[in-house]
């Protein structure tokens, strides 16, 4: 399926997601407030880390090798059994650890011992959440875009209904419970979509672990683990620093700003995952790889720039539409955040090459370095420029990342250098 067709189907899912996000953000703004947004951000960062470990961090590798073995079903099945068995075991172990350490997690991360029982809900649904992520990876790797989109739409609708009802009824506590179980509920929709394909059988997902595929997945486990640890930890550190300087409400304003970026950039990031990542895995020639990168740039970056500029110009309306007047202080972040988002996507077009081509060491080192540099830049810039310094740090960090990716991927990597390139 082409990038344009993938973008079309993904656009349907993103349109639904943005519509549900509009309603959900409004509900959360009313029922949890800016301070609650900061706690939700902390919890979502933790969920991101936990789910990565509960899936054995195999999902990116499953996407790559499912696409790469498109003409070898037996190899796909050995891969899936390896990933499925790892996921089942890792999610069970992770759930047990969550139950055992729920008090510490509530106290140190959410700063409220009374929220410890939320982690019981997270543990209860973790196996289904992990299996949902695995099945989505299978759909992605098999390029079943329509079924992938249906599952994502279901996730958006279920998330709106469950989170909205629980937030209305129980405030912040209900919101955290909803975040714990939403993806577990979506599993049943994804499982139904996968079961209707001609290529899936349940016996293909569980069974003997294949050593060769385990080794092949190892590189992607390391890369996913680096992202799962470095990125959320840096965000938690930035959030804690903002709270220490300006209070938890300001940490919530930044989280709300980050949420806006996530919503409108989802169209691009999911499209890159659906089309671009499997495509990078298929390409054999450096010339073709460079052509794919340039072609993606021509479509993606101008689109993001136009949307970012529009959001900036309509920032007053956006804040009042998505949130409440209590979130007005976040408006000072828009200019720097939107500019940073354009640079971020520009750099990601290149950084996806590291995932698609299995550049393990380079990916891990850059993830760790630039996650740390974002926190460091935020600490420095907020003390020089005030609250808006956190958005300035976002732009500054991705500008450095973009330059680094351009040099490492296009100038130095043998994967993209052709015989006519200098050096």
Report on the architecture of this protein.
With 423 residues, the protein is an all-alpha fold. The chain is built from 14 helices and no strands. The chain has one domain. It has helices at 3-31, 33-54, 59-68, 73-100, 102-108, 118-141, 145-195, 211-246, 248-282, 286-313, 315-322, 334-356, 360-385, 389-412. Helix 13 (360-385) packs antiparallel against helix 14.
Key features of this structure:
423 residues, mainly alpha, globular
Give a brief outline of the structure:
The chain has 14 helices and no strands. It is mainly α and 423 residues long.
Number of contiguous helices: 14
Helix content: over 70%
Number of domains as seen in the coordinates: 1
Secondary structure: number of strands: 0
Strand content: under 5%
Rg, rounded, reads: 21 Å
How is the quaternary structure best described?
single chain
Shape: globular
The H/E string reads HHHHHHHHHHHHHH
Largest sheet: none
Low-confidence stretches: none
Helix/strand-derived category reads: mainly alpha
Distance between the termini: 35 Å
Q: Roughly what is the average pLDDT, rounded to an integer? A: 86
How are the secondary structure elements laid out?
Elements: H1 3-31, H2 33-54, H3 59-68, H4 73-100, H5 102-108, H6 118-141, H7 145-195, H8 211-246, H9 248-282, H10 286-313, H11 315-322, H12 334-356, H13 360-385, H14 389-412
Helix pairs in contact: 1-2, 1-7, 1-9, 2-4, 2-6, 2-7, 2-8, 2-9, 3-4, 3-6, 3-8, 3-9, 4-6, 4-8, 6-7, 8-9, 8-13, 9-10, 9-12, 10-12, 12-14, 13-14
């Amino acid at each position: 399926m082409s990038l344009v067709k993938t973008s079309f189907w993904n656009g349907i899912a993103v349109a639904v997601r943005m519509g549900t996000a509009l309603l959900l953000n409004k509900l959360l703004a009313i029922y949890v407030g800016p301070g609650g947004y900061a706690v939700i951000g902390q919890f979502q960062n933790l969920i991101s880390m936990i789910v990565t470990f509960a899936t054995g961090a195999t999902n990116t590798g499953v996407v790559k090798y499912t696409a790469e073995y498109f003409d070898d079903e037996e190899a796909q099945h050995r891969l899936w059994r390896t990933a499925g068995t790892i996921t089942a075991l890792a999610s069970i172990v992770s759930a047990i650890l969550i139950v055992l350490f729920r008090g510490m997690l509530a106290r140190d991360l959410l700063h409220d011992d009374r929220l410890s029982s939320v982690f019981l809900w997270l543990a209860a649904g973790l196996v289904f959440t992990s299996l949902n992520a695995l099945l989505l990876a299978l759909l992605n790797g098999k390029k079943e875009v329509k079924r992938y989109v249906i599952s994502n739409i279901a996730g958006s609708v279920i998330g709106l209904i469950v989170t909205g009802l629980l937030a209305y009824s129980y405030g912040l506590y209900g919101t955290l419970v909803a975040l714990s179980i939403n993806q577990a509920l979506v599993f049943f929709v994804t499982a139904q979509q996968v079961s209707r394909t001609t290529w899936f059988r349940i016996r293909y997902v569980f069974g003997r672990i294949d050593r060769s595929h385990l080794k092949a997945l190892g590189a992607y486990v390391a890369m996913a683990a680096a992202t799962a640890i470095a990125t959320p930890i840096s965000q938690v550190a930035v959030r804690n620093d903002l709270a220490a300087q300006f209070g938890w409400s300001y940490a919530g304003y930044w989280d709300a700003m980050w949420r806006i970026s996530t919503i409108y950039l989802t169209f691009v990031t999911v499209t890159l995952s659906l089309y671009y990542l499997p495509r990078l895995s298929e390409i054999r020639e450096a010339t073709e790889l460079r052509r794919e990168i340039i072609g993606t740039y021509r479509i993606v970056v101008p689109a993001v720039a136009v949307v970012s500029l529009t959001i900036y110009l309509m920032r007053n309306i956006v804040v009042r539409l998505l949130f409440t007047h209590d979130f007005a202080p976040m408006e000072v972040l828009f200019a720097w955040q939107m500019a940073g988002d354009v640079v971020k996507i520009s750099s990601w077009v290149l950084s996806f090459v590291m995932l698609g081509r299995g550049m393990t060491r380079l990916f891990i080192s850059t993830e760790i370095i630039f996650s740390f540099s974002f926190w460091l830049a935020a600490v420095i810039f907020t003390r020089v420029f005030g609250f808006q310094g956190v958005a300035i740090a976002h732009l500054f960090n991705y500008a450095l990342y973009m330059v680094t990716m351009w040099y490492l991927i296009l100038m130095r990597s043998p994967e993209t250098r052709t015989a006519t390139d200098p050096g």
